[in-house]
Description:
Number of helices: 10
Family: Belongs to the peptidase A1 family.
Signal peptide: 1-20
Mean pLDDT: 81
Strand content: 25-35%
CATH class of the largest domain: Mainly Beta
Low-confidence stretches: 1-26, 84-100
Structural class: alpha+beta
Bound molecules: 2-acetamido-2-deoxy-beta-D-glucopyranose
CATH topology of the largest domain: Cathepsin D, subunit A, domain 1
Helix content: 10-25%
Keywords: Aspartyl protease, Disulfide bond, Glycoprotein, Hydrolase, Protease, Signal
Largest sheet: 17 strands, mixed
GO molecular function: aspartic-type endopeptidase activity
Number of domains: 2
Pfam families: TAXi_C (PF14541), TAXi_N (PF14543)
Amino acid sequence: MARLTTVFLFLSLLLSSAAAADAAADTCSPPSDDPSRLSVIPIYSKCSPFPPPPPAVATSSLLDTVNHLAAKDPARLTSLISASAAAVAPIAPGQHLLNTANYVVRVKLGSPAQTFAMVLDTSSDASFVPCSPCSGCSSSSSAAAAAFSPNASSTFGSLDCSVAQCSQVRGGSSCPATGPEPATCLFNQSYGGDSSLSAALVTDSLTLGNDVVPGFAFGCVRSVSGGSIPPQGLLGLGRGPLSLLSQTGPLYSGVFSYCLPSFRSYYFSGSLKLGPVGQPKSIRTTPLLKNPHRPSLYYVNLTGISVGRVRVPVDPKSLAFDPSTGAGTVIDSGTVITRFVEPVYAAIRDEFRKQVKGPFSSLGAFDTCFGEAAEAPAITLRFEGLNLTLPMENSLIHSSSGTVACLSMAAAPNNVNSVLNVIANLQQQNLRILFDVKNSVVGIARELCN
Ligand SMILES: *[C@@H]1O[C@H](CO)[C@@H](O)[C@H](O)[C@H]1NC(C)=O
Ligand SMILES: *[C@@H]1O[C@H](CO)[C@@H](O)[C@H](O)[C@H]1NC(C)=O
Ligand SMILES: *[C@@H]1O[C@H](CO)[C@@H](O)[C@H](O)[C@H]1NC(C)=O
Ligand SMILES: *[C@@H]1O[C@H](CO)[C@@H](O)[C@H](O)[C@H]1NC(C)=O
């Protein structure tokens, strides 16, 4: 890391005056020209408070890093499919590796404010943060460990079982009363498919850039198990009742957008922009669909996929939105590589292989790797009203040796529940994705955000 920093400083000095270099070196601070824009930081970047990846990952290629991160995708998909606040895995002691997805934003809680790098998650509603003391949260030796001190905040409050938010966070299940006084609202929640947390529902001031949200309800985590619980908490950007959007009402009018920087961008951050002000004015959109059984998820209408000029033959049923089964396509910030249901992925892969010079091999999650010199066709996702031709860096991933490239998508885990296609963050890099719940649209525009 020291070597990279030196190289970076050297380049900065070469490219600009000393003053400008100082500014460039501090790309971790929020952009000062627009305080309502929050930095979105890749978890393994210089600006991330989390420890560097395991040495095997740190010295390996982007392809290996993505494979490492994507190893959690199948568990996440399974949990998205079964998405419901009531789904709970048992709390058991677990390991505490940093296996959490992918991008974090800095937010502040309490008065005076305590800062956390929370994972941005568009498929979760309730936000949460580890509270002190927290059993099983990241070990205290780690720089990434940060717990919220309720005692140190003058605006902290707890919520009891009688409030509507309590039944929401408990997935409708009742909250046992233990005495004459109303009981604190406690809940358990599973996360990432293999982890769970136990928390109290509390309120405090949430500060996002220049905005303060008083009385924001979130989970104060007292115990965790499994390796997927974000060590500094999670910001729930889903569309269900306890999400940031739902709790902020007119402040953000149900609108936000983000631009995720490339996994490759060690030094730079993307941005999260909350509310309708300052969003791109002309942006192509596709309808946002609502599934009452999975109220957190952002469904879109994917109607087809093209490889080069060829429209891939797929049974429209494999893509159709069906609120009763949960079938359809979602846009998710927490899955790493885009997953299609098996028959759809097989059709894409077969057409791709027809147009590229083989032979083909597999590397980790990817089954279509080939000599990098071969020409590859672009992939177009056809949404209702919007064709998105993916930039090459969003559909191909390269090995460190520079000799192999892989089609950077995969089939969804093939089990009885596999009805969901997920547009994941590798395919969203350097695009601005606008979620407008009020007007029921998703907008997509090219934007270089790293
Ligand atoms: C917070 O305050 C309560 C009551 O004053 C006390 O019992 C508890 O030990 C304190 N917790 C911490 C972590 O300081
Ligand atoms: C959460 O799970 C733990 C362990 O399974 C259990 O003891 C506790 O009662 C649960 N809490 C709630 C609120 O369901
Ligand atoms: C998806 O788009 C297709 C093509 O425009 C349309 O026929 C279909 O009704 C749409 N599905 C939904 C659920 O809106
Ligand atoms: C998307 O591309 C298809 C095939 O080229 C075309 O028929 C369709 O009109 C395009 N849709 C939009 C919204 O541009």
